[in-house]
Amino acid sequence: MLATVTCAAEPAAAKAPIVHPDKRITFSLKAPEARSVAVAGGDGLGSGPFQMTKDANGIWSVTTPPAVPGFHYYWFVVDGLQVNDPTSDTFFGYGKPTGGLEVPEQGADYYAIKDVPHGEVREKTYFSKSTGAWRRALVYTPAEYDKNSKARYPVLYLQHGAGENETGWTRQGRAQFILDNLIAAGKARPMIVVMERGYATPATPDIRQENVQAAFSAFEKIVVDDLIPTIDASYRTLADRDHRAMAGLSMGGMQTFFIASHHLDKFAYLANLSGPIIRNADLSHFSEISMDGPFDTKTAYGGMFSDPAAFNKRVRLLWVGVGTAEPEMFRTSIGGAVKALKSAGVQLVYFESDGTAHEWQTWRRSLNDLAPRLFR
Fold first, then answer.
1. Mean pLDDT throughout 339-347?
2. Predicted confidence band at 193 (pLDDT cuts at 50, 70, 90)?
3. Which CATH homologous superfamily contains domain 11-103?
4. Closest CA to 25 of 112, 94, 104
5. More exposed terminus of the chain, fewer Cβ within 10 Å: N or C?
6. pLDDT in tens, 117-170
7. One fold for both 11-103 and 120-373?
8. pTM of the prediction?
9. Between the CA of residue 244 and those of 36, 247, 269, what are the distances in Å?
């Protein structure tokens, strides 16, 4: 019989995770009929899954070693079945609603809610002629947006990673607060930020099982033919390439370079946050994408970097970043490409997030470094 997981009204029966001052985390779950329970999650939680023990009241618990600061997805494995914590909010990650928690980083307040003017995150529903379906984008407008009806703003198109959706940058990444704080301090120019779902189909695909070329091409058509015209028609944008940027994390970084390589007439600012940088042009299947070996600046991305002088003149910012604790695939592909691009004379900004993995703290830090460099 499947174990019953209950969430009792009394706080003692089922507590949300407790993050201790030393960053150890105590998880608990009431599942009296379960035979085994463990907790697992993102890279920053450590080397789990962590096996839990049951007390006389049927409450399973475990305290993990100190976690890396930042946002972490997590879930319980109850008798082999993955379930969310009934005491936790869920966030869209791993292709489905998934539990999450925050481990504070000492001294890091750039993504905190502060007593500064706050922008708004709006929902923009629009019809995509490319797919024949309705879509939703989340749009951040700066605090001053509604106060001056004559002002127009540059636009950053900011994409999430694989298994996530358009809510990732505001719910997990806290992008709106990062922008609020930077703009209030005069460090970043007031801008509109557009966050769309990076898939052309209703289902969330597994990029490792997809024809990546077809998937990215379909999303490219949405961005260029549907999304940009919709945003320019609906908001007070500065609707030219010199005031338009595209950036993304992981899969979103791959999409940024893929789309930009065909549309440098649309974007003057490009940023890749932990997105694997490919060596070859074959995107038919993820497993066939080459991220090893030398990066050929002449042929990669349709020759986008083949004339460094022309690229530098046309692209006002090329920004690339990675966490130092990310898996080798990311560090190797990104680091090798950065070295080759710099050697060829391509101007770029390279950013490393010290000690963080392929998780949201890397990308929060990345956005905090990137945003002040845009539209200058």
1. 97
2. very high
3. Immunoglobulins (2.60.40.10)
4. 104
5. N
6. 999 999 999 999 999 999 999 999 999 999 989 999 999 999 999 999 999 999
7. no
8. 0.93
9. 52, 10, 7
Question: 94-108, 173-187, 288-302: lowest mean pLDDT where?
Answer: 288-302
pLDDT in tens, 272-303: 999 998 875 556 555 556 566 688 999 899 89
Q: Alpha-carbon Rg of the chain, whole angstroms? A: 22
Classify residue 14 by its DSSP letter: S
Compute the distance between CA of residue 216 and CA of residue 214 in angstroms, rounded to an integer: 6
Quote the tokens at residue 28. Answer: 């608990």
317-323 β-sheet, strand order: 120-128, 133-141, 192-196, 155-159, 244-249, 269-273, 317-323, 349-353
pLDDT at 6 over 70: no
Domain 120-373, second-level architecture? 3-Layer(aba) Sandwich (3.40)
Which residue in 29, 9, 43 sits closest to 88, CA to CA? 29
DSSP state of 232: H
Q: For residue 370, what is the enclosing H or E element?
A: helix 360-370
Domain ranges (residues) in the chain: 11-103, 120-373
Candidates 63, 55, 83; CA nearest to 20 is 63
The answer to whether 69 and 93 are in contact (CB under 8 A) is no
Burial of 278 per CB tally in 10 Å (0-12, 13-18, 19+) = buried
**Residues 247, 323, 19, CA angle at the centre, nearest 5°?**
105
Contacts for 262 with CB less than 8 Å, ≥ 6 apart: 220, 302
**Closest to 179 measured CA to CA, from 127, 82, 110, 228:** 110
Residues near 324 by Cβ (< 8 Å), separated by ≥ 6? 331, 352, 353, 354, 355, 356
